Every structure is written in structure tokens, then in C-alpha cells.
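Example record

The entry below shows one chain as it appears in the dataset: sequence first, then C-alpha cells.
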Amino acid sequence: MRDAIKDLKTEYGLKKGWDKTFTSIVYISEGILNKKKWSEIPDICDNPDTIDVLNNIAYINLKKVTGGSRAKVIELDEAYKIFKELLITQINLIDADIIIFGGTYLYFKNDFVNNNFKQFGSCNVFKIENKIYIDAYHPQYIGITRKKYFNDIIEAVNSLK
């Protein structure tokens, strides 16, 4: 996946086919890592260098095999069963301060259990020791605006820092 992320940047922004998901990831990463508000982040098409923030994050895909643009629930269920140990090992090895589950927390809820959820609009957040965990929609979810998705996650992170 790291090689795929390195190839996402074009002179006009994000590579087509990856842009719907990764635009949100770029904005949220920029907001968290560089303490920026939505209005302070340039449009990716105007400033493709914003995409470079992806070099400072880890991205773990639950489904470890190629597929279509939309994962089917049955495929995710099967992938989690097959790759559960690998996924947990990856999360623990990366040792991130903030872990955002983009529509996948339901698979990990027994592995990262906490009943002290706080809700921030479209996402839930909790802290275990010094790590912040966020249960958010998939970054490509179309039920809310990107700005709301961004603001909810940034507010959740800031509430526990």
C-alpha cells in the first residue's frame, strides 16, 4: 500500500480513482499533524504538495487483496477473519498516537474495547492509555460533507489531546 500511496500525487492533485477516498485522508492528516482548520488547507488541485502529508501517516487496509471500488460487506467480513492477527499486529507495530477506523471499527470493537465513547457529530472517540481511537465513517462516505467529516474528527481528536 505504501507504494500505491507514493504514486497518488499528480501535478493536478490526486490520481483519479483514488481521489474520492484520499482527499478526506489528506485533509484530516493535514489538520491533525499541522494543526490546521479546514479553511487553512489549500485545495489539493491548487497545491498538490499538500498530498505529501501522506508520507507521515500509516494507512492499513482491512481487505488485503485487490477488488472493485466498493468493498462488499461479505468480503470485509471474510478479510477480517483471515487477516485479523496481521491487522492487530500492524496496528500495534505502527504504535500511532491516533488511530482512525474509517468504517471498520465494528470489526475491531472487541480488540480495542472502551465504553467511554464521546460522540462528535458523525464520529465517536475514546482514549486508552495515551492513544486516541476514532470510530468514523469511511473517508469516501457521501452521507456528510467532507468539511463536516473533517471538523468532527478534528474536534474529537482535540477533545482528548
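Notes for this example: Residues 73-94 form the longest helix (22 residues). The beta strands are 9-10, 13-14, 98-102, 118-120, 123-128, 131-136.
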